[in-house]
Amino acid sequence: MFKEALKLIKKYDRIIIHRHSHPDGDAIGSQLGLATVLKDNFKNKEIYSVGDEATRLPFIEDKMDEIPDEYYKDALAIILDCGSARLICDERYKTAAKTLRIDHHIYCEKVADLDVVDSTYESACGMVAMLAKECKLKLSPKSATLLYTGMITDSGRFMFDAVTSRTFELAAFLMSQPIDVNTLFYNLYAEDFSEIIEKADNMHKIKFTPNNVAYIYTAREDLPANADAAPVVSTGMVGLMRDIKGVFVWVNFTESNDGVHCELRSNRYNINPVAVKYGGGGHKKASGCTVPDKDTAMKLLADLDALAATEA
To answer: Which of 197, 243, 244, 289 fits a 20 to 30 Å CA distance from 115?
Structure first.
């Protein structure tokens, strides 16, 4: 599956790597992991990573590169972990000589000249790891750690049902390098006491629809002053509802300057069509979208409630 992608990579001397904005572990892990793999295997190529900084993963020390527009003229732009063109961070990829996408979301539109999309993978990092394995590219401790980061975060520490035997085979492939798992997990999951208190406060905000869809709605004025607060709260609080007995669908709503971020989750049903209906996408059991206002968010909630009623 990755032979055509490798042909493109070998063809271009300058490669610029993109992913979705407000990156999570899989987005930043696959971007910087691939960049490191390419730097380790193709010493004469120029490899750049662009986009907004990964504020949710401050322990990742690599910073984004600032490059001029003219760098794209004869370059290959690679887009990772992005199911929709509107989510790609830095639109300059459109001006590249050639584009390549590697993604594990449900396919909804053509994004690049070559789209390598497979929604059976638990993570984009898993796909990059498979590219390295299939194409016999060497790993380093740094590249392996970055790719392992995205694999464990997007698989929920190997708990989600997107995990397969292939996931563990690729994890073993990455762990052929000396990954400091204890430090990695501490960096990912240790929390300030204030964050624990904030989660406790949000648990008191959980409400339920008639068909037991759990949801949290956070208004703009209730967010911290931090400019990145909305996306952090949007994804960070949705997991609070995951283990409530009798709840099989849940959603977190967070107001922002861009509208209302909606994070949809389920451990039983395909909620992706609801996200797509409102301009989003993702996976069968983990999707997201941004709607213009609270009224629209409540319509989305009603659709989820109807889904839960139909599937009950």
So the answer is: 289
Write out the DSSP string of 115-175.
EEE-TTSS-HHHHHHHHHHHTTPPP-HHHHHHHHHHHHHHTTTTTSTT--HHHHHHHHHHT
58-80 burial code (b ≥16 CB/10 A, e <16) = eebeeebeebeeebbeebbbbbb
CA 98 vs CA 47, 114, 129, 131: distances in Å: 15, 9, 22, 19
Provide the phi-psi class of 73: left if phi over 0, else alpha when psi is between -120 and 50, else beta: alpha
- By the 10 Å C-beta count (0-12 exposed, 13-18 middle, 19+ buried), 175 is classed as middle
**What mean pLDDT is predicted for residues 4-9?**
96
In the structure encoding, which two tokens stand for residue 111, read together? 């994004």
Residues 62-84: pLDDT tens digits? 899 999 999 999 999 999 999 99
pLDDT in tens, 28-65: 999 999 999 999 999 999 999 999 988 878 899 889 99
| CA–CA dist 188, 231 (Å, integer) | 17
Whole-number pLDDT of residue 257: 86
Query: Could you report how far apart the first and last alpha carbons of the chain are, in Å?
Result: 38
**Which residue type does 295 have?**
D
Rounded (10°) angle between helices 124-134 and 165-174: 70
**Two structure tokens written together for 219:** 């208004």
